[in-house]
Amino acid sequence: MADEPALVPPKRPMEGADDRIPPGQQPQPQIVSHPISPTLPVLETATGGGGHDGNEEFDSNNSIHGVSSSSVGLSIDSDDSDATSSLGDVNVASSSLSATSSVFEFVEKYGRTFHRYKEGKYYLPNDEQEQSRLDLQHALASRLLEGKLYLAPINRPNRVLDFGTGTGIWAIEFAEKHPESEVLGTDLSPIQPGYVPPNCHFEIDDAEDEYTYSYKFDYIHGRYICPFLADIPKLLRMIYDNLNPGGHVEIMETLMLMKAVDDSLKGHPLQTWNTMMVEGKFVLFFPQPDT
Questions:
Q1: pLDDT lower than 50: segments of the chain
Q2: What is the reported pLDDT for 257?
Q3: CATH topology of domain 25-252
Q4: Chain segment 208-249, per-residue pLDDT in tens
Q5: What are the residue boundaries of the structural domains of the chain, listed by start?
């Protein structure tokens, strides 16, 4: 069995640090421990017929012994007196398990930290610097929407899902403005705050995994996540299958390919670079097997 990377204390990247890699040198990934706040305790098992006892441990392949990681939702809750879910009398997921300490260990590369659960699936960091960028991104989106959190014509949705929730800022604000709704935010990184509204709940989950919830949603929201997805049509099918009749889905994205109102970009080096950058992203991060 290969040696596991050593645990090192978490550290923030130096301001203005030079991230360039010397020729011929590749940095070795390290595992850093993410401090668990007392307000962010590990959940007990959210039972739901899956028969798991919550004592499973993660192996080096980011799977749980005896359970495929693709079917597992790991819960994070700020209230350890609630062993199931804040979503009323239904279970968050039929195979929702306790989050073991390995989920809170981040991989360190280039002086930045990255998610440990399904390592490499999301290629941006999750450290404080990135969290600040995500919150700024949320503020800019709110400004573009004139202070609105959404544009969908929803009316008092009962259950709301925010996939790729990041720092959880959208889910928290929605929960505060809609106390009648139960809001679930999912992400690969446990970087959400501990103090949240009582109707807001977070899980560690992969947006592209099959949904295992015992209920459907009235409103599903996602923002700035599609560039990190390998199969968007599959995601949309899952969303459709997990919406209640009359439910809404709203996904806000940036336009990756540059366009102009006229033909000024046609054949321009900037357009060539932009097209190759988008194509290269899929080749690099979503390689297809040889046919």
A1: 1-23, 26, 31-73, 76-97, 291
A2: 80
A3: Rossmann fold (3.40.50)
A4: 999 989 999 999 999 998 878 888 889 999 999 999 999 999
A5: 25-252, 258-286
Instruction: Give one DSSP letter per residue of the chain, joined into a string.
Output: -PPPPPEE---PPPTT---PPPTT--PPPEEEEPPPPTTSPBPPPB-SSS---S---B-TTS-BTTB-GGG-EEEE-S-TT-SS-SSTTS-S-TTEE---GGGGEEEEETTEEE-STTTTSS-S--SHHHHHHHHHHHHHHHHHTTT-S--S---S-SEEEEES-TTSHHHHHHHHH-TTSEEEEEESS--S-S---TTEEEEE--TTSPP--SS-EEEEEEES-GGG-S-HHHHHHHHHHTEEEEEEEEEE----S---SSSTTTT-HHHHHHHHHHHHHHHHHSPPPP-
Distances (CA, A) of 131 to 60, 110, 128, 136, 263: 26, 17, 5, 9, 38
